[in-house]
Design a protein that fits this description.
About 35% of the residues lie in helices and about 25% in strands. With about 240 residues, the chain is an alpha+beta fold. The strands form five sheets. Strands 8-7-1-9-13 form a five-stranded mixed sheet. Strands 2-3-5 form a three-stranded antiparallel sheet, with helices on one face. A three-stranded antiparallel sheet has the order 10-11-12. Bound molecules: zinc ion.
């Protein structure tokens, strides 16, 4: 069985968690800030509790985004499952993400791999930090490599001693397609491809062919194509 993991962000705010009497929603100390997951501040009662609340808001960065880790089993009979939610200020870098990926893989191998299967890689909606790591994995020459038997195909995954393939990143192609198309919805914003300029009409002409051939784990080419049609103003 193969697995995949994604993250998403949405706007949130800090608040008091009554059951544990803690403040949640902070991403770590403002001074020399490093994003910290799962930070909880015990409040307490009386004057001491009040001071704790004031100090916490003064000294911590508020995490205004949510980070969600979703296990996506690549099997039609297994549903996707959220295994972790946390707040973040979204200022972390690719090195921080790599540390998280390494930690998650280690924990997954320890607790879940035997029953569910190995993690084969990570997914994202087009975030540049994850894209950087995915390209680094795909272009690595380290160890035994696995790749598609396709002439001129350059990307490859890593084969572990157990036989598991790892480092197969996946970006949300409808999401990235919309990022590509939206700026083109102005005649003054052409897409420069080498010596050529593309406009919205070029993307529209190629999308039926490309999107019929490309599908993610849930096979959504027709929905993606409908999105392109709507963006290009042709809903017929
Ligand atoms: Zn942060």
């Amino acid at each position: 069985m193969r697995l995949d993991i994604t993250r998403k962000c949405n706007v949130l705010c800090s608040r008091w968690e009554s059951r544990r009497d803690t403040l949640i929603g902070f991403c770590g100390q403002k001074e020399s800030h490093t994003c910290r997951l799962g930070l909880e501040v015990k409040v307490g009662s009386g004057e001491e509790g009040y001071s704790c609340i004031v100090d916490s808001f003064e000294s911590n960065v508020i995490g205004s985004y949510a980070r969600v880790v979703i296990v996506n089993p690549l099997h039609e009979k297994l549903p996707r499952l959220v295994i972790s939610t946390s707040v973040t200020c979204n200022s972390f870098d690719a090195t921080w993400v790599q540390g998280q990926w390494d930690w998650m893989k280690c924990e997954w191998d320890k607790h879940c791999r035997a029953q569910v299967g190995p993690i084969i890689g990570h997914a994202s909606d087009g975030d540049s930090r994850r894209r950087k790591l995915m390209l680094s994995d795909y272009c690595s020459k380290f160890g035994t490599r696995w790749k598609l038997e396709w002439e001129s195909w350059m990307l490859s995954g890593c084969v572990a001693s157990s036989g598991d393939v790892y480092g197969l990143g996946d970006q949300d192609h409808p999401h990235n397609g919309k990022k590509l198309v939206n700026p083109l919805d102005k005649s003054t914003y052409p897409l420069v491809l080498g010596d050529h300029h593309a406009c919205l009409e070029h993307v529209h002409l190629t999308s039926p062919t490309v999107l019929e051939d490309v599908g993610g784990p849930d096979r959504r080419p027709s929905r993606a194509y409908n999105g392109y049609q709507a963006l290009s103003g042709d809903s017929s």
